[in-house]
Design brief:
The chain has about 325 residues and is an alpha/beta fold. Helix content is about 35%, strand content about 15%. The two termini are about 20 Å apart.
């Protein structure tokens, strides 16, 4: 039996689909299932039980002995939320509860950390455990993820295998419900369809041209492949970056979206809002050495490949993973 938390959300629902494709159907899905806009994410998925996230702790008291793996993808991910109590409850204490159950019942665990833990990148983007206590996330979401990473690394009792995945800028099918928190690709597509052009932030630094701010954009299908690899191979436990290892510009992303739509490019620039200008990141790029040394050899989708497939096969056809 496999538990997937956040199973109605973007990565969680896509992961349930990936497990199904690998002939795994004895899955317990966990989430807040009250949000109707997420229902399509779980259409045609196979699972054995559906549990509201508030009931999981009690459920585990009875059935934890039957669980073979915990995939803890669920979290509060809104980077504009500043109520620390929400993050303490959902991202820290809930994760601790799952960790302790995995320790008590010898269950392997993979959980979602985040590249938001790296803040402005003062210490680089290396998944080195030594830098974790030094990191300075820019918002309560990133702080909550880093706080749990710090707690996990400090534990003397750990699951038999565990991995905290520092997701970089994930995009792809099943994110349609995320509204303002959806990927830039998703928003670019909709802006082009509605207005025929894309607005990108101007650069407010002399060393970056407009639109050339860089991010490590990773296609959700690659995220799923890495999770399946870790489940199957269980390399050394610890934190792992999950990006592509190659930063690309927002300008390139917009170009790829226009190309996928076969529409003439019209890319415009607007000032970065002053309230976020001082903390706006101009560069993120995952150091993927640790995952490669753990034995993961598959190529990642290039930005152009991922955007083309996403736009042509999913968004434009309202298809889901």
């Amino acid at each position: 039996m496999i538990i997937v938390t956040g199973a109605a959300g973007f990565i969680g629902s896509a992961l349930v689909g990936a497990l199904n494709n690998a002939k795994m159907k004895n899955i317990v899905i966990v989430d807040d299932f009250s949000k109707k806009e997420k229902e399509k994410n779980l259409a045609n998925k196979n699972y054995t039980e559906k549990i509201d996230r508030s009931n999981l702790e009690d459920w585990l008291k009875v059935y934890a002995k039957d669980v073979h793996f915990v995939l803890h993808i669920g979290a509060r991910t809104d980077t504009t939320e500043f109520d620390k109590a929400i993050f303490d409850e959902l991202n820290i204490n809930y994760s601790k509860m799952l960790w302790k159950n995995c320790v008590a019942h010898n269950i392997p665990m993979i959980y979602a950390s985040s590249a938001a833990t790296y803040g402005m990148g003062e210490f680089g983007y290396d998944d080195d455990h030594a830098i974790v206590p030094k990191l300075k996330p820019l918002n309560p979401y990133g702080e909550s993820k880093n706080d749990f990473d710090i707690w996990a690394l400090a534990q003397t009792k750990k699951p038999p295998f565990w991995a905290g995945l520092k997701f970089f800028n994930v995009y792809g099918p099943n994110e349609y419900h995320k509204s303002r928190m959806a990927s830039v690709i998703f928003h670019s597509y909709n802006q082009i369809k509605e207005k025929g052009f894309v607005n990108l932030f101007k650069s407010h630094r002399d060393d970056y041209k407009d639109g050339m701010q860089l991010r490590d954009f990773v296609y959700v299908k690659d995220v799923l492949k890495v999770i399946m690899f870790l489940m199957e191979n269980k390399p050394a436990s610890g934190l792992y970056n999950l990006g592509t290892g190659k930063a690309r510009a927002f300008y390139h992303l917009a170009q790829a979206t226009f190309d996928a739509l076969e529409i003439k490019q019209d890319i415009r620039f607007v000032p970065t809002p002053e309230d976020i200008r001082d903390k706006y990141q101009y560069f993120t790029e995952a150091n993927m050495k640790k995952l490669r040394e753990a034995g993961y050899t598959d190529d990642f989708y290039s930005l152009e490949e991922g955007v083309s497939e996403y736009v042509r096969n999913y968004i434009s056809k309202e298809n889901y993973l």
